[in-house]
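Support reply, case 0932

Customer input (verbatim):
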Amino acid sequence: MSYPKLSDAKSGFYIIKIIVCAALALLLCYSVVLRIRILAQGVWLWDDEAMLTLNILSKDVGALLTPPLDMHQNSPMLYLVIVKTFAAIFGTSEAVLRLYSLIGFIGFLVCFALLLRRAFHLSWVYICLGLAAISTFVVYIRYSLEVKPYMGDVCFIFLVLLLYRLYKERRVGLPLFTLVCVICLFLSTPSIFFIGGIFIFEFLLNLRKPYSLRLLISLMICGVIILAVFAANYFYWMKPTTDDAYMVDFWNQNRFQIRFWNLDALKHDLIILRYELLEFIPFKNGLTIFWFFLAPAGFVISLIRKNIYTAVIGISILLLLVASNLGFYPISLRLWLFVYAFVFLYSIVFIAALTLRFLPEEVCRQKSARIVIQVILAGVLLAGNYSFVRAGEPASENLGAWDKGMRVQPLAEYVNVNIEEGESVYSYFMASNILRYELRYRAQKLPNLREDMFLFGTIDMSLDANEVVNRDGGAYLLFANSYFPVKRDTMVYDLLSNVEGRGYLDRVEEVNYTPLYWFAKEKSELKTGVEMELLSQTPDGQVTVRVTNTGKTYLETEESLHPFGMMAERRGAVQTVLRLYRQEELVEERLLSPLPYPLAPGAQCELGLQPGEIQNADSARIELVSEGRFDFSELGTVSLWYNSQVWEITK
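Our regenerated output:
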């Protein structure tokens, strides 16, 4: 059997490589376009973004660079100055505030590609694979569109590594390299660990071989300068925030404990890795887990090949773990965002390691088998990110950045359209800073709302409930999620249960499980309404009616325990009730049928009722009631009246 000529095989192989690179490049471009599209939507900030934004926009540069920032916020100083400059030039929209993160992501892609090419000597087909995998990674989509410095952290870490490569090539001198490292310290806090890893490795490397005393002294001087700048930055800028009781508690809970021989410490490490570092990774598709097998294998292969950049990265990660163990750098996804860049990098290194140079004709089949394996592994690397195409869509309980703020936006817009003079808005503390930003800096979106209409919530639910109840007129209760859906927030339950027994609480709207409520102390302030229409009746007494929600609040059911299904007693479920009267006095009451499902404003349902025999009564009525609260007849709603063995609608 004859094999194809080697030249023909090479030609076909390169054509395939070009096609693959083009396809991966299109995927990369689509992911960037997707980000720009999300940015253009003007998705509202979520709580953590809003807190940092209020610091940036409300303070002048001097106050902004005077620690600590309000609301436990902390970001690198140059990051704050750059974002404030963007806002001063281009305006205070959400897109402008998030522009830094998008630029940081694009800069990271460039550094990543150049590092793979120069430091790991990979061909462009593998570089394109890495770029496509990174750009479609849902966590990087999220953080490339946030008013936070974390995407910039990843960019500057890879910039430092790339500059180190240029330093090794003698294209960048040590003084310039040191200067850039110093600047990076004011843009990215975790870059210090990689800068430290580089200087430690360089010092050790130059000790092992015939060394230049001048070079060692230069390395020591530059290292001391960098360390001094970092220490000054830490004690002036970071320590006032890290010493805050809230932050101390958070950092202590998320310390990495380097005591692998201790079972409790090991369990602690596994728990924080699972819930802090891997919480948002889409393991459900079953493919993502393979990344964490490919990457360690690629790391080991790179070490075996004596790649000095892998050694630097390894030293840097060890420094990070030691710092975490000492309580200086907690395990948290946003602070360790760069880890996933290295996961992709070493996964690509492993896949590329399966490539051999074009073999002689007699072993072409083995080469083909290796290519098949590579294609499968590359597919696994990309397929784990399949859900990225849904980025920008507000999924039910997905807490992506594009989704968090959107839960506040439609509810606030509803209130903006429907609020009347004399009414108030209570904003749950997770929504308060978002709304402060919108009212102060994006007021054109909510023209009918003013800050004096708002009761901005605190973390004290009893105090908040008193504020709502004591305010004249009714109040909208506006909620937002943060790190988990509102329906799982026990503080929300505390607030609603406190308010419920002191007036009337109705659900007005709900968007992706995030509700808007209306609270009224008096029945006259209720926004609920209902109509009952007689459709048919039979000689045996069966009555069919149509119920229409004519108000602005939901009509709840017996199954949807109000609110959130968490209340101890069932209040507000809409029931049909038969009432028998003798000489205008109530002598008997029978519950007939509840609504089959919650009715949103404008919705209808039909009920088949069996009133049964009516004896020893002068008259009978079928009425709608809000269980435990009021009769709809008190609000002027019609009821069914039994007259001469016929049911009729009457006021």
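We compared this against your earlier run and they match. Two observations from our side: Residues 320 and 391 are 31 Å apart (CA to CA). Confidence is low (pLDDT under 50) at residues 1-9, 356-364. Please reopen the case if you see a mismatch on your end.
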